[in-house]
Amino acid sequence: MNSAVHKLNIVLLGAPGSGKGTQADRLCEKLGLTHVATGDLFRENLRNETELGKLAKSYMDKGILVPDEVTIAMVKDRLMRPDIEGGVVFDGFPRNQTQAEALSAMLAEMGQQVNAVVYIRVADDEIVERLSGRLICRRCQASYHKKFNPPKVEGVCDVCGGELYQRADDNPETVRTRLETYKEQTAPLVEYYQKAGLLVEVAGEGTLDEVTERLLAAVDGKVAG
Ligand code: AP5
Ligand code: MG
Fold this sequence. Notes:
The chain has helices at about 20-30, 40-45, 50-60, 70-80, 95-110, 125-130, 170-185, 190-195, 210-225, and strands spanning about 10-15, 35, 85-90, 115-120, 135, 145, 165, 200-205. By secondary structure, it is of the alpha/beta class. The protein has a single domain, classed as P-loop containing nucleotide triphosphate hydrolases (Rossmann fold, 3-Layer(aba) Sandwich). It has a five-stranded parallel β-sheet, sandwiched between helices. The chain has a three-stranded antiparallel β-sheet with strand order 6-5-7. BIS(adenosine)-5'-pentaphosphate (AP5) binds near residues 22, 64 and 206.
């Protein structure tokens, strides 16, 4: 990666379970960026029993999108923190055109822009298998899989030692709705960002390392090109 590239802002697009969270952590580590995941921010609010958390829960439990104005305000707030200075990997945001336009406007106000949008493509049946075996750290939200990416010690996060749990929205019925929501509302962003000349598609199947290598090459190609 060209070290002269500053303030790199990358968006990860992909269905539930496509590996956005897993790969965002890896990209951030390799490129020195900050991971901003709207799902994680909502779950943090839920854990802290804030009003925002209570509101978000009613949508998340159903597998539908939290209203745009709430989500956009939360991201705006997050982007005020100094740790985003070096650039961001956005995971789970934007999720429709209104959010995409809001993100461009927020970054423009900061003299920045979206530099690359990576669409991680994974087949539906693989997604169901991934989500049914997923484990999340209660403390740092790192993502594991019982079979594909198990923690070193059962039930304990490798990164921070936190307790691992299964997300409430990873049950088969909510997963189905999340997939429908994704196809109706978020998948159109693939074409939207393609038209903007920002999109690069990456195959999301294979080992975690293989997918990371593809993502790094994709970002490098997009930013250099
Ligand atoms: P969010 O938390 O964003 O969930 P999601 O989009 O459904 O995506 P996931 O987190 O389920 O999947 P992921 O792509 O991060 O996959 P992961 O890396 O964990 O959103 C939850 C809810 O919040 C939404 O439904 C909505 O209500 C609300 N919300 C969030 N953002 C919003 C927004 N912008 N607007 C409105 N509402 C919003 O991987 C999945 C599993 O697969 C893991 O177990 C992992 O270990 C495993 N895995 C990863 N890579 C591989 C691989 N290569 N091979 C095998 N297994 C793998
Ligand atoms: Mg995630």
